[in-house]
Amino acid sequence: MSLKHKLKLALRESYARMLFHSGLHALVNKLMPRRLVILAGHCVKPERGEWPAGQHLSPDMWIGEAQLERIVSWFKARYDVVSIGDGVARLDGSGRSLLALSFDDGYRDNARVLGPLVERQKVGATVFLESRPLDERRVNWSHKYFWLLAKLGPEALVERYGAHSGPTHTFLTLNQMIAEGRGNERYHLKRILKYEAPPDERDRALDLAFTEAGGDERKLCDELYMDWNEARELSVRGVELGGHTVTHAILSKIPPDVQRREITDGARSLERGLGKKPVTFAYPWGRRWDYDESSRGAARDAGFTCAVNMHAGVNRPDTPRYDLRRVAIDGEAKLHLLVAEACGGFELLRKFGLDLAE
């Protein structure tokens, strides 16, 4: 990490703490234009009981139940905590600023932990669902990757990838990364598989390695993802369910007609399974380079009224509805940083030419 970036993070931390502990966040909230801030997570780890997802998933994919409830309780006293669809519909109105909870992919703990939490707190939330796990009980490639990494370790995983792919560019890149010993292999291996590996090669090699290592895809899906009954129960609890494609593909890496099928078929599946048309959509992975203008058009044509990405920031009435921003939360989430974002504190600094965004 460069000295400049370290200094930026230190300033960001100090500024957020000052706003939070001094109470100035309340004044900034009143001075800044009304806004919608969307929090984005994946899993909610229960305080008690078994949590199979924890054996496989990356730490940045979950937040603890008690931690999430503390965050929700704090914001509920000062903001309207809503679903994304409700928040977008209310952005042009008046009243308190808005905070929306959102969780991606449709994990089982969303039904078993998030649903009751939302009901207890009497707030809104949105869960974005991949449709293939619901329809076919199949998982996307990243879950086989996490499972293999936990079972084999990084070096053996790369070795098995090479055994099934041959000496491809991807294998050579993975092998070089291991040889260099950069650290944080989980992140670097995933990045290479996500952006540099040809999807067909990656999926085939991971499928073969997963089966060879004793993996059971349906069992893994049943451990990780909710089924249709749980999705419908979550909807009855008042949680908004949105679209997230069929297979969680990187949309910008596939042709426009395939993007359209991913988005439209996912929406139709949810309409069949839930009895109502979804109105909100989340781009898989969610960085600006993971989707493009074809993705926006396909989401619009599929009937979604808005779409969200994974870049931090606030949403105002003039924010493009198919480029809504979200703030990631996980077990490392800090309330003072979330408050500084939600009150418009970082947006205020940008007006003076200082950008402390991550």
Describe the structure in your own words.
By secondary structure, the protein is an alpha/beta fold. The chain folds into two domains: 33-137 and 227-342, TIM Barrel (Alpha-Beta Barrel), CATH 3.20.20; 141-219. It is built from 17 helices and ten strands. It has helices at residues 3-22, 24-31, 65-76, 84-90, 108-121, 132-136, 141-152, 154-165, 169-180, 185-195, 199-212, 217-224, 228-236, 256-274, 293-301, 335-342, 345-351; strands spanning 36-41, 43-45, 62-64, 80-82, 98-105, 126-129, 240-243, 280-282, 306-308, 327-328. The strands form three sheets. Strands 1, 4, 5, 6, 7 and 10 form a six-stranded parallel beta sheet that branches. Strand 4 (80-82), helix 4 and strand 5 form a beta-alpha-beta unit. Helix 1 packs across helix 16. The longest helix has 20 residues, at 3-22. The protein is globular. The mean pLDDT is 95.
Notable features of this structure?
single chain; 358 residues; alpha/beta; TIM Barrel; 2 domains; six-stranded parallel β-sheet; two-stranded parallel sheet; 17 helices; 10 strands; 11% strand
Summarize this, please?
The protein has helices spanning 3-22, 24-31, 65-76, 84-90, 108-121, 132-136, 141-152, 154-165, 169-180, 185-195, 199-212, 217-224, 228-236, 256-274, 293-301, 335-342, 345-351, and strands at 36-41, 43-45, 62-64, 80-82, 98-105, 126-129, 240-243, 280-282, 306-308, 327-328. With 358 residues, the protein is an alpha/beta fold.
